[in-house]
Amino acid sequence: MRIVLGVTGxxxxxxxxxxxRLLTEARNEVHVIPTEAALNFVGKATWEALSGNPVHTSTxxxxxxxxxxxxxxxxxxxxxxxxxxxxxAKIAAGLAPDLLTxxxxxxxxxxxxxxxxxxxxxxxxxxxxxxxxLRSRGVIVMEPASGRLTGQDSGPGRLPEPEDIVAxxxxxxxxxxxxxxxxxxxxxxVLISAGGTREPLDPVRFLGxxxxxxxxxxxxxxxxxxxxxxxxxxxxxxVAPPAGVKVIPTPTAADLQAAVTKQAPSHDVLIMAAxxxxxxxxxxxxAKMKKGPGENSLTLTLVENPDILAEAxxxxxxxxxxxxxxxxxxxxxxxxxAETGDKEHSVLEYGQAKLEKKQCDLLFVNDVSxxxxxxxxxxxxxxxxxxQDTPVAEVAGSKDDxxxxxxxxxxxxx
Length: 414
Prior knowledge:
alpha/beta; Rossmann fold; 8-stranded mixed β-sheet; 19 strands
């Protein structure tokens, strides 16, 4: 496994040398990226000798390899130990002034921060808020140890011992020997649909919708970070699928129905995030339809598309038997409801009605009045559960933040 070990400028940097030794003894390829401040505590020669790899700190180093991006792209795991309050704040803000923070921005691998700082800095409201922000994005922040700090001070903020960091990584993040990711969905298979289906009228025209696929892709990435094996059923999307995810193209509702029917029984979780067209043309012209002289209108006959979500729930439930100890798969099915309210009912009331109709386990309801949600980078979702009268959670923020909450909710229910 390829690990990036970041080291920042704190006195605890000397402990990172032993952590590096433990990681390499587990037969991992480790690339150390210290900050300039860290080199004041442990020199470059030490890191190169222990890792067997060249060490750089600047984004302008090894530019022929596009090193400031390549390190993150090629990493299977990024660990920063120690993580100072300064570096923690930079990562939370998305800043990238050096090679280490560039690597964090460029990676899709799990990122583990191991803070080390004085107690007052660790408990400062700014640091507390930064840790909350990072955890909401899926960054793993290990709790610091409590004990002797620099000088005469003592309290929480001490860097955990290298053996404890390795034990944490093995238990919570990834098996360092095999490279198997650990997390709340480790060992689970998750099937996610994303994007908007397009129903062809002829070879060049189609009926579609405004879905960009961003929320579905964010869900796939969050599930992958949680340790799941993820398959993405991709309708039309404006964004690329995340790394490490199997992709099956499903451009039309019929394609998506066929893929769900085939794939769902072998997965633990089905999340229907795709915006599926309600209707499709009754017939598709083999050639481009031409506009004749004097024609200023077009009549289309539409037929209703299948309710893929309700169909998946019905098939799953039909296999249940009271005497079965093991639930049929998917064990959990979640759907989406993009709703608008009116004079008679609120968005939440329409969402509750859809949940009762679909009978899925969870329903993610978002208000799309005025185009909110579609194509944007932020979202606001209310999570409803079939077995609960009140909402499970309400979450608003970036689609990545929303996806993390959704995946945690699913993991908790499994």
